[in-house]
Specification:
about 800 residues; alpha+beta; Jelly Rolls; Immunoglobulin-like; TIM Barrel; 4 domains; nine-stranded antiparallel β-sheet; 38 strands; about 30% strand
């Protein structure tokens, strides 16, 4: 290692400043000689580094990137795939550092960063001056989504910012931990930055050059796990400079440990780099067996008895020939084996081959094909294909179905074909189907351009009902516009519209599509700045204008406001007080099927319902309104084992696979929504998944194979059982943690008979119905009690 040390801190770390000192006004200018004296004092106070101190710093270390002319980490508990487009290197505090100019240093956060508790530390030599006021914005030194260390030029202060969403309040940033310490930095001068946080206590601390610069307590600190597909970043275009010795721990370092980091970067780096990566990772596959993406997507759904065939790609990327025997197994939802095939293969170095395997689709459900290879003591397993088995629908989707969807309406309707094959009906005109968006029908002032009629035609051809959406503002129609024309590929700007222009747009859209679309939603998540940057009062005015124009064009249409998120209660009330609900026929909000206990989901959703109905009674039409949940999904993992896409963290630190829980949570969540009177739920999301780290976890209803995930087939099976029925009641046995939802089915057309039940049912008995379906689930942690995943049906 190059032992070059460039350490010129501005503040001494030999003693901890008082709170008043750390937040005081600008300090007197400090000379280079002063900085050298400070460095010497720090060295004297920490001149001895016992082995125990160094070993202690290794405890809980998740990430260490030394930037020695490479982005490769010395240690990465998660993914080690670090990126920084166009990265170059210059002299650092120890050896080399990375030069950040146009893009941040980025790595996936899962395994490398912990929200509940931790420390981040790094060195930076800024290529900008805090006194430069030509840039009026944030200079972000570190970012981990809702968690950032910034220098804010207009105020000339540094923020250790954290934010979260809280029920009843919505999302909020906390700026309480601030420091003026950065305002005296000079370009090219090295400084050490460290921050610690503890979500359990709400405590967070910002340290500069080994001393506490600011600290405080907040309730706006997230404690959930970091998603594997979300990156953490060091530096950015607006905060250029040289960065070095980036470290993250899953514990709060003490002030003494942070002083050591600032005083002895060279010895600390040498000690930490000596720590070897875990040797527990499995041996790599001796041959690359790929995952099959079936095209078209509808081909992933077979009728019982049909044969599924997959062409499995095999590549030998090594320098030696491969000869071996691969076992392929067909597995069901419970990962029980339903069939086996064996293939012997010889692949020369640098060449590829294809193995074709076929299995019959035995019964309804989801299935996957596993590849297994055994050599000596090593056993490798990877799921390489998947499909669903479901009978072909015999009738068109019901207009009265509870089950709505977000299905990709591009690709010549390929994903709509798959949805039709599964019997899915209602579609929401949102990001997967944008035909009625304002920016699509009138991107420029003047005549309307109906360029997305093909999407409306596609769902109409498949007899799928549509929830139209009156949403987005073109650049030219902004209330204070026109604003600069945005990038055509960017998300539409969240601008409040000119009300006259809005009325014209709504009238034109409802007139054009009114013959087939009778339900309309005004906006999407206006309480989120990505979709609306006006006030709640401005949103209320837009709702009234939109409702007026829509009713004028089609007096029979149903209008709902406004795709609200569940937590931002204060925002909702301001909008309601200003009249947002006055002309509404219904309220739409977003709530999915979370992986939470049934008791918690029921109580939380009931609170949300009570909140919106109170607004309707007090500030709307004076009575309860129908409620639609127009967005919300189930966040779970793939059920395909053995993914090794670039960017995924090592298997040992990935979120445990929870697709089984995801399937159960989907059915459970839908049943609870129906029990509580929600009229329709549009689950999110049914779209293509690109191979990569995003394929492992998320709300997608499809896998990277294009086949349904277990939760989608659980929902399809549930819809087949209960669509057309009404909820007759919910039976709970708390001591057994048993819930049973009872549905009343209408008698067949032209037939009416009294039910026969033990004990003599009467017409007044709520369960005295022609046909009864019971969805039952039990929460005992044993496999038998949770079968089948799609809910048990008794008819």
């Amino acid at each position: 290692m190059v032992t070059r040390l460039h350490h010129h801190p501005n503040t001494a770390a030999s003693s901890e400043p008082t709170k008043d000192d750390s937040l005081s006004a600008k300090a007197p200018p400090r000379s280079p000689l002063f900085a050298q004296i400070c460095a010497a004092l720090i060295a004297l106070t920490c001149c001895r580094l016992p082995g125990a101190d160094l070993a202690g710093l290794q405890k809980g270390l998740l990430l260490h990137v030394p930037f020695e002319a490479t982005l490769s980490p010395a240690l990465a508990n998660g993914s080690g795939e670090i990126t920084c487009p166009g990265a170059t290197y210059a002299d650092g505090t120890v050896g080399k550092g990375v030069v950040v100019t146009d893009a941040a240093v980025s790595v996936l956060g899962e395994g490398n960063f912990r929200r509940p508790l931790g420390t981040v530390a790094f060195w930076v030599a800024p290529a900008w001056s805090p006194a430069d006021t030509s840039y009026q914005g944030h200079r972000q030194l570190f970012d981990a989504t809702n968690f950032a260390i910034n220098y804010y030029t207009p105020k000339r202060v540094a923020f250790f910012m954290t934010g979260k969403t809280r029920k009843g309040v919505g999302y909020r940033w906390d700026y309480s931990v601030t420091s003026t310490g950065i305002r005296d930095w000079e370009p090219g001068e090295w400084h050490h930055v460290a921050a610690t946080w503890n979500a359990a206590t709400g405590r967070k601390t910002l340290c500069l050059d080994g001393a506490v610069a600011a600290e405080g307590t907040t309730q706006w600190l997230r404690d959930d796990l970091y998603m594997g597909t979300v990156p953490i970043r060091l530096g950015q275009k607006e905060a250029p400079g040289i960065y070095d010795e980036w470290m993250i721990w899953e514990r709060c370092l003490s002030l003494d440990e942070i002083k050591l980091l600032a005083a002895h970067p060279e010895r600390i780096a040498e000690s930490l780099e000596a720590r070897s990566a875990s040797s527990s990772e499995p041996a790599p596959w001796p041959i690359d067996i790929g995952i099959v993406t079936t095209v078209p997507p509808a081909a992933t759904v077979l009728a019982p008895g049909d044969t599924f065939t997959a062409d499995i790609p095999v590549r030998n990327t090594t320098s030696t020939p491969f000869a071996g025997q691969i076992q392929f197994a067909l597995l069901d939802f419970w990962e029980a084996t339903r069939g086996r095939e064996t293939r012997r293969i010889v692949v020369e170095p640098g060449t590829s081959d294809t193995l074709t395997v076929s299995f019959p689709a035995p019964v309804r459900g989801v299935f996957k094909v596993a590849a297994e290879l055994t050599q000596r003591k090593n056993v490798w397993v990877r799921d390489v294909a998947s499909f669903a088995c479901w009978p072909k629908p015999t009738h068109a989707p019901s207009q009265d179905s509870f089950f709505g969807n977000h299905v990709n309406a591009w690709f010549d309707g390929a994903y709509l074909d798959q949805a039709q094959r599964l019997g899915q009906g209602w579609m929401r005109n949102h990001n997967m189907l944008q035909a009625t968006w304002w920016v699509r029908v009138q991107p420029e002032p003047g005549e309307f351009q109906w360029t997305h009629d093909f999407q409306i035609d596609a769902v109409k051809t498949r007899a799928m009902p549509v929830l139209g959406q009156l949403f987005t503002t073109p650049y030219w129609a902004a209330v204070d516009g026109p604003v600069p024309r945005p990038n055509a590929r960017a998300y539409p700007p969240p601008l409040p519209p000119d009300l006259d222009a809005l009325r014209a747009y709504v009238g034109a859209v409802v007139t054009r599509y009114g013959n087939t679309t009778k339900h309309w939603e005004v906006w999407n998540e206006p309480d989120v700045s990505m979709f609306w940057r006006g006030s709640p009062e401005a949103f209320a005015a837009a709702c009234q204008a939109a409702c007026e124009a829509a009713k004028s064009a089609d007096p029979d249409c149903v209008l709902m406001v406004g795709g609200f998120t569940s937590p931002a209660w204060g925002w909702h009330e301001r909008a309601a007080r200003a009249g947002a609900l006055k002309s509404a026929d219904a309220i739409s909000f977003h709530y999915g099927c979370p992986l939470k206990p049934a008791e918690e989901v029921h109580a939380e959703l009931q609170t949300v319902i009570n909140h919106f109905q109170r607004l309707a009674r007090e500030f709307g039409p004076g009575h309860d309104l129908p409620l639609w949940s127009t967005e919300g999904g189930t966040g779970d993992t793939t059920w395909l084992r053995g993914m090794d896409y670039v960017g995924l963290p090592p298997q040992r630190v990935r979120k445990p696979m929870n697709w089984h829980e995801g399937a159960i949570a989907t059915v459970r969540g839908e049943a609870i929504q129906q029990v509580l009177g929600i009229e329709r739920h549009f689950i999110y999301l049914q779209n293509a998944i690109k191979p990569g780290p995003h394929a492992y976890e998320g709300t997608s209803m499809l896998d990277v194979t294009n086949a349904p995930r277990p939760k989608l087939m659980a929902r399809v099976a549930m819809a087949a059982q209960v669509d057309g029925a009404t909820v007759a009641g919910c039976i709970t046995v708390p001591e057994a943690r048993l819930w049973a939802v009872v549905y009343r089915k209408p008698p067949p057309l032209g037939q009416c008979r009294q039910p026969k039940r033990p004990g003599g049912a009467t017409a007044s008995d709520p369960f005295a119905v022609h046909d009864v379906t019971v969805l039952r689930w039990c929460f005992f942690p044993r496999k038998a009690a949770s079968r089948p995943a799609f809910g048990e049906s008794f008819t």
